[in-house]
Specification:
By secondary structure, the chain is an all-alpha fold. The protein folds into 2 domains: about 45 residues; about 70 residues, no CATH class. It is elongated. The mean pLDDT is about 80.
């Protein structure tokens, strides 16, 4: 009889879960979850969202982090796995991260 709808344990479990979800929602609201930057992000237009995403990924720490990761993957596939196609693919992705922001600023997209 455990787990069937209508049983006492199932009703207690539903009440506990609803209380937990309510508390999580209250904490999220108190921290400014709906009023914070996420709500601002969702109020942007489609183009503004993509400009922010590319601007964030192609500049600063994220750019360097992803470029290093893809450079390591490129070298690993070239040296260890002897897979030139995968190595060149990761190298091209690394170049996009390194020079993508400069190219997009030159074109006028960022």
């Amino acid at each position: 009889m455990l787990g069937f709808p209508g049983t006492t344990r199932e009703k207690i479990r539903q009440q506990v879960m609803s209380k937990i979800l309510s508390d999580i929602h209250d904490i999220w609201w108190a921290l400014g979850g709906v009023k914070g930057s996420l709500a601002k992000f969702w109020s942007w237009t489609y183009e503004e969202k993509w400009q922010w995403i590319f601007g964030t990924l192609l500049k600063g720490t994220f750019c360097r982090f992803f470029a290093v990761i893809f450079l390591i993957l490129s070298l690993w596939f070239a040296i260890k796995r002897r897979n030139l196609v995968a190595s060149l693919t990761f190298f091209v992705i690394m170049l996009c991260f390194m020079y993508g922001a400069q190219v997009m600023q030159f074109i006028g997209l960022l």
